[in-house]
Amino acid sequence: MNPTMDQVIAKANMGAAVPSIATSVRVGTNSGGTGSNRCFWTGAKQPITPEADPYKLYNMLFAGKMTGGAWAWPTRTPTRSGPSARACSTTWAGSLEKFSRQLGLEDRQIVRGHLDSIRTLENQLTVSPPQLGSCGVMLTAIPRSRGRRNNANNGTLLDLHFQLMIAALKCDATRVTTLQFGDATGGSVSFPQVNVNRNWHSLGHNPGADKIVVDKWVMTQFAGLLDKIKAVPEGPAPPCWTT
Amino acid sequence: MIILLTEGYRPGQVALPTSGPIGTQMLPPVTAPLEKHKQDLIILTNLGNPQFRGCARWGHGTYGTIFAQDRGDPNTATARSTGSR
Questions:
Q1: Which residues contact A86 (CB under 8 A, 6 or more apart)?
Q2: Is the pLDDT reported for residue A96 higher than 90?
């Protein structure tokens, strides 16, 4: 299993210093296993687990400055890894690398992928977080009673994730973002917004007129993302933003 | 930017019937919301992954291979390499 293209592009553009950002809305855990639930991979047996909670993602990206919101985690000052932590991880990483030389090719690749992930995290912890002011993101909270598990919120959730992805790109917190809307089966997604309460999987097998209605709704959300991106003023920006 | 529809689509409702520039033609019903952005879009249909050689999980397990140059279902890659499929 090779890395997915987002990881190839991220590595080419950012090295290991800044992680790509993976988000999701309504990724289920039903049929198909990990290969069905995870669209993005850093390598063999190295699936990327996307963040489904926009408020948690907000806190991760913008250093805990978010204090409200239905799913906001408690505001906290992120722990920054100091020299001792880095020295410690360097020591055991060396041991793990030494150990991996005794393994077969496939297992060595898994260990290497694990070490790359740790180094990315280490870099993330030692780099100053982006400043909120430069990103200009303002999330709109939705009531707790209509949380992430309610399909009626899918439009709002997508919009929140779009805001975060754009803000992260805008302030160069990353240059690559991904968003999964559902998993490979689509079994967790239905569309009460347009009065279609069958799931996406069912609609694929037996589309009827509903399939066109829901796909049009999805394209409407995508158009909203394009509107938001085009609304970002041109100016000093990372290269990927303007290409 | 890439957007992928994994749950299939209704032929004729997403892309124009002919290939080439979208130009001044109106987009079909499903992609009509993208009308004002159409000059920035490329719509590709009828794509497949010839590298994918199995349907151990009906193709659902190919999710992780869609954006990778790969042939296998991540769930079954190990099983295939050991010949136990």
A1: A122, A126
A2: no
Give residue A23's Cα distance to chain centre.
3
Q: Read off the pLDDT band of A47 (50, 70, 90).
A: confident
Q: Record the pTM.
A: 0.73
Rg (CA), chain B: 17
ipTM > 0.90?
no
Rounded CA-CA distance B70/B41 in Å is 26
Query: How far B49 CA lies from chain A's nearest CA (Å)?
Result: 14
Task: Name the burial class of residue A31, with classes exposed (0-12), middle (13-18) and buried (19+) by CB atoms within 10 angstroms of its CB.
Answer: middle
Q: Which two tokens stand for residue A50?
A: 């996307």
Q: What is the DSSP string of A130-184?
A: PPHHHH---PPP--GGG-TT-GGGHHHHHHHHHHHHHHHHHTTS-S-EEEEES-S
CB nearest A2 (choices: B5, B29, B69): B69
Position B78 confidence tier, pLDDT thresholds 50, 70, 90: very low
Contact B64, A1 (CB under 8 A): yes
> In Å, how far are A51, A116, A146, A190 from A20, measured between CA atoms?
12, 13, 29, 28
Cα distance between residue A169 and residue A240, in whole Å: 9
CB-based contacts of A105, cutoff 8 Å, min separation 6: none
Contact B34 A222 (CB under 8 A): yes
Q: Dig out the tokens for B15 from the structure.
A: 């892309």
Task: Indicate the residue of B60, B67, B73 with minimum beta-carbon distance to A6.
Answer: B67
DSSP secondary structure letter of residue A51: B
The residue behind tokens 């158009």 is A223
pLDDT band at A199 (very low <50, low <70, confident <90, very high): very high
Q: Is the pLDDT of residue A81 over 80?
A: no
CB neighbour class for A84 (10 Å; exposed up to 12, middle 13-18, buried from 19): exposed
Contacts of B73 in chain A (CB under 8 A): 35
Give the model's pLDDT for residue A212: 94
Q: How confident is the model at residue B6 (pLDDT cuts 50, 70, 90)?
A: confident
